[in-house]
Amino acid sequence: MAAMNDASAPVLTARGVRLGFADDVVLDDIDLEVAPREFVAMVGASGVGKSTLLRAFAGLLAPLRGDVHLSTAEASASRAWSMVFQAPRLFPWRRVRANVELGLEGLGLSRDERRARAMESLSLVGLEELAERWPRTLSGGQQQRVGIARALAVRPRVLFMDEPFSALDALTRQRLQSELTELRQRSDAAIVFVTHDIEEAVLLADRVVVLAKPDKAAPATVREIVTIDLPLARRREQSGFREHMQRLEQHIGVAATPEETMS
Amino acid sequence: MTRPARHRRTLISAVSLAALVALWETALRVGWLPSNLVPLPSQIPGVLWAEVLDGIWLDVVLSSLSHYSIGLVIGSVLGIAVGMAAALLPRFDAAHSWLARLLRPIPPLAWIPFAIIWFGVTETAAAFIISIGVFWINYFTSYSAVRAIDDGYYEVARAFGQGGFSARLAKISLPAAAPGILGGLRAGLGQGWMTVVAAELFGIPGIGQRMMEASGLLATDVVVVYMLTIAALYALFDFLFMRIQRRVLRWQQ
């Protein structure tokens, strides 16, 4: 059985994390706590190490120093965490439903239970009708929705999302952003979301972690954590939105060159 | 290609083949070609029928098919297994890569002396020779197919609790490399069949041996019957294999 988790205890705790190689430290002194069901976005110039940090949080990379603690899976037949990647990375040799079932394999579920969980997850992203299709027949946006369904199917405590919408066209991106805000309310997962898009961070997150280098030669660290205290289902034109964006831009901009900041 | 264009192509192919056979027949009948060197095409169906009635045709075909299938299965299974292992296990790759480089350029027929010393003039010797050529084709195609797999898939597997060796093998390496592996199997199917006849020319019973017997008696019509048999059987295997391949790889089309 999974260890008991205090309902309010952080689901992710990072203390003094250093990442990179012994002679080339990319990130240093990273401290972060993520509360249950919280949505934390991580922004920063390209190359600052956002995706690397996300992988270290997930345990896919070992830190050089410091430690990362992820709370264990709570519900039965679930996983502590799962991930949505920048490219959907569906397995082309599996039908949509079988792709969503991937993380459920080895959790002690029967075939019918796996199937039911996958269909439930697909209906969350509105794709249950495409369950028996091959991935190549889906649009980019649909494929990324399947990637999200695959990650939600394992009922993770933490959902890591690595620039999940950056490869999509603007219209699809906006649609998926608002869908994600709705999904949040139906899922118990905390979300750690990497993006280079400040607007996206303000639109979606409860808190935005700004990663930046104190100076050109130094490794990046957490420069600022900005709380976005706007009610959910946010709109770009609502009051306070611009102010949050400007504040984040200032924090990112200090050490980065202009073309790195704007992307 | 559009449908009418495909039909036209088929028609042109059929007409030119028929024209060639007609020219061959005419050349022999009017004496442009010596009849002791090549048989009359019109004799071939009759000779085939005689071979079938005697039971010789079925005998030699079955015995060739038996060496062929044993050699094909052993060569393919070992080739795929060793090729995949080399691609997945860096230590194993390092341990055997010089040996592989040394043995690979040796053609299967160069193993005939050893095959006969080790196994005698037996079916086992023929199967052994066939398996060698099939092994190398499958070894190299499986190796490159597995090496070409996008690392991103393995990261997905780790992210979804499928990071163990056997899970990765069954859920990623095998299906992702399947197009390459099946391509190698198909090439091996052809290569093995070509080796069958060569291996049997040394007296191991089968199509090759029957052809050698016939040529000793200048029975060129019998030789041609078995040449056509080889071509027809290969076309049949290749056709059947392609149907299986298309079914297995239907996610690609």
TrEMBL record, chain B:
It is a multi-pass membrane protein. Residues 61-241 form the ABC transmembrane type-1 domain. Pfam families: BPD_transp_1. Coiled coil: none annotated. It is found in: Cell membrane. Keywords: Cell membrane, Membrane, Transmembrane, Transmembrane helix, Transport. InterPro entries: MetI-like (IPR000515), MetI-like_sf (IPR035906). The chain crosses the membrane at residues 68-89, 110-137, 222-241. It comes from the Bacteria. Its main location: membrane. Belongs to the binding-protein-dependent transport system permease family. This is ABC transporter permease.
